[in-house]
Design goal:
disordered N terminus, about 400 residues, seven-stranded mixed β-sheet, DNA-binding, elongated, 4 iron, 4 sulfur cluster binding, single chain, Nucleoside Triphosphate Pyrophosphohydrolase, alpha+beta
DNA sequence: AAGTCGGGGTT
DNA sequence: AACCCAGACTT
């Protein structure tokens, strides 16, 4: 009896009619998204990279801005990475921006500026993995190949009542086999998008609108009355709490920021200098401010800044005693920062000569910014420096402090 | 196979 | 809070 059901179910999934039904549903009710109005493989590439781990609603304004600023592979390749990061800032996962830029340069140098037209070629480009290669190949070039994202994993796991974690290679392999047998020959790109659209609009994570689903009558999860049991997932590792002692060097209304390394956390963005303090394994939430001695401040300060030019002034302030601000909690995917900060006020320069490290100097397209590792950004205008959202709490606190001090002057 | 990489939207 | 999101890459 069970074997009969399995066989019957397989037949249903391989039924051309089912694929047609999915496409009909998609054609009738899909959202009108910007990247669905173009056949330009570059634009689709940009959209797919932005959509990695990022919701459609969040991506749309970034997508429009990015294409306006970098309309083609050539123009992206010719741009400074700094400018690409500027447009990307706020979107997160900043290595995506760097790899997109690297990918454009790769295409320009090795492929004569022409995007690869198939899965295998696309897969070699930085930032294009299994999913994105399949998505671009099918959507922009009509190649018949699956594109399995989180939506598709959820839809398939419910459709098949898949009783294994969906992240494993085994699950992925089985899903690919299934989709390859099922995928539309005439329009494989729409087929892939239809599955994702179904996952985004109907077969959603927390609830699911099975009453509106065009596949409900063959969905094992729904027929068994337990669609929400799926997808099965492996348990996740817990987030680590890390205290980040942050130093705000202030000169009038300007704040000192330095560039983070090209790889790793917040790669290539500009930060307030800081030093991480591992919260001792104790599982105490430790919501208060840590007790830091003057000597410890100096050790952290020297670890945080490469520039030794501020050591004397900083030490003097630490000796006099400092006010520890915060904490502000900020959560990443894999860690949680307890941000605390001290403000170190520096004397304003007496000379009328402009500072070398200012935004104004930088923006005058001088191309020798490779060595630039620090800047002074003004609190009123930080629009030329990609800053992480993690520090926006500190930033706003400084801005409001500035505003109120200006009001006192009146 | 597990860990590293953001930020925002949802329950 | 926890979970999710049109994942890729490193270890």
């Amino acid at each position: 009896m069970k074997a009969f059901i399995d066989h019957d179910h397989m037949d249903m999934l391989q039924d051309q009619n089912l694929c047609t039904r999915l496409l009909n549903w998609y054609n009738a009710s899909h959202r009108d998204l910007p990247w669905r109005k173009t056949g330009n493989p570059y634009a689709i590439w940009v959209s797919e990279v932005m959509l990695q781990q990022t919701q459609v609603k969040t991506v749309i304004p970034y997508y429009e801005r990015f294409l306006q600023r970098f309309p083609s592979v050539n123009e992206l390749a010719a741009a400074d990475l700094e400018d690409v990061l500027m447009v990307w800032s706020g979107l997160g996962y900043y290595s995506r921006a760097r790899r997109l830029w690297e990918g454009a340069n790769y295409i320009l140098q090795h492929l004569n500026g022409q995007m690869p037209g198939d899965y295998d070629g696309l897969l070699r480009i930085p930032g294009i993995g299994d999913y994105t290669a399949g998505a671009i190949a099918s959507i922009a070039f009509g190649q018949r190949i699956p594109a399995i994202d989180g939506n598709v994993k959820r839809v398939l796991s419910r459709l098949l009542a898949w009783n294994e974690p969906v992240e494993t290679v085994r699950s992925l392999r089985r899903f690919k086999e299934r989709l390859l047998a099922w995928q539309s020959v005439e329009n494989p790109g729409d087929f892939n998008q239809a599955l994702m659209e179904l996952g985004a609009m109907v077969c959603t994570a927390a609830k699911s609108a099975c009453g509106c689903c065009p596949l409900a009558d063959v969905c094992r999860g729904f027929l068994g009355g337990e669609a929400l049991l799926y997808p099965l997932k492996k348990p996740k590792t817990r987030r680590k709490d890390i205290t980040r002692l942050t130093f705000v060097l202030r000169k009038g209304n300007k704040i000192y920021v330095q560039k983070r390394p090209a790889k790793g956390l917040l790669a290539g963005l500009w930060e307030f200098p800081g030093s991480e303090i591992e919260d001792s394994d104790g599982q105490s939430p430790n919501d208060g401010l840590p007790d830091i001695s003057r000597d410890e401040y100096m050790v952290h300060f020297q670890k945080a800044l490469a520039d030794r030019g501020f050591d004397l002034l900083a030490e003097e302030q630490f000796r006099r005693g400092v006010i520890l601000h915060g904490p502000i909690w900020y959560t990443f995917s894999h860690r949680r920062w307890k941000i605390i900060w001290v403000i170190i006020d520096l004397p304003e320069p007496r000379s009328p000569f402009p500072l070398r490290e200012t935004e104004g100097d930088y923006s005058s397209n001088s191309k020798d910014e490779y060595s630039e590792i620090s800047r002074w950004v003004s609190l009123e205008n930080s629009g030329q420096t990609p800053l992480p959202v993690a520090f926006s709490g500190i930033y706003e606190s400084l801005q409001s402090e500035l505003t109120s001090s200006l009001q006192e002057l009146e």
